[in-house]
Amino acid sequence: FGTCSGGRLTFLTACRVKGFDAAIECWGGRVVASGDDLTAKQPVAPIDYTKDLSCPLLGLFGEEDESPSPEQVALHEQELKNHGKTYDFQMYPGAGHGFFYYHRPSYRQDQAVDGWSKVFAFFEQHLDKSA
User: Fold this and answer.
1) What is the pLDDT of residue 131?
2) Which of 1, 20, 33, 108 qualifies as a cystine partner to 95, CB 3.0-4.6 A?
């Protein structure tokens, strides 16, 4: 589970490391990256590892976000579809980056409450309860 850069790292980790039951990416910026976004320290965009995603993915995003933008989220979702991955993406109207952060102006209570309900339901559905 991760938000912002932690969302990107959650996705990247779930693609590169086996053994997770589920992953939750909240507004993970720079999953879709190209050109000037790529550097010697990040030579590959996380989206390029989608084929290796090893567990179901929940993605929560805001329509008013710029990183990731709705267009980037659409590209991310299309890549998941292309590889037949199990995922659930939710795009929230009226929400931008960090809408869970109750102590910031970006907080959106209705969207955050719904998002948290989706997080708990996703974990309930996918986490191995026998472990």
Assistant:
1) 61
2) 108
Residue with tokens 């993605």: 59
> Does the annotation mark 65 as catalytic?
yes
Task: List beta partners, residue 61.
Answer: 91
Q: Which of 15, 26, 76, 97 is catalytic?
A: 97
Helix (H) or strand (E) holding 73: helix 70-82
The sign of the dihedral angle between the CA atoms of 2, 55, 115, 76 is: positive
**pLDDT tens sequence across 16-47:** 999 999 999 999 999 998 888 899 988 999 99
Burial of 40 (0-12, 13-18, 19+ CB in 10 A): exposed
pLDDT in tens, 73-82: 999 999 999 9
Report pTM.
0.94
Active site residue 97: yes
